[in-house]
Amino acid sequence: MTIFQKILDGEIPCHRVYEDDHVLAFLDVAPLSRGHVLVIPKEARATLGELSDRSAEAIGRVLPRLCRAVCSATGATDYNVLQNNGAAAHQAVMHVHFHIIPRVGEQGLGIDWPAQDLEQDAADLAASITAAASG
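Now predict its structure.
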């Protein structure tokens, strides 16, 4: 059982900022900046690819509203939405979650983006992804 499931079950308190039948959002206890919010589905799945369409739709519906609310409450005009999948991708809690991280001055998320050149077989790769998404 993850810490997020314990929060959903009421075993651990949180500072709720939004809740509906499918989604809970609350302040992160170790924020990168003031107003750092976590948005989680009530469905317990480790990665985004495992999430049901219903839960994904519910998060997709509320995420923009919560971004606006965080910016309004903090005065931030810039922010990151971060979602990691798997330990190698820096996921610490194995329950799908999105971070809304306001960027105010130097507070917020710092990113190193080691870009690479597009692969030679990009057309084949795109076709493979398209086929997988259709099935």
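The domain at 3-112 is CATH 3.30.428.10 (HIT family, subunit A).
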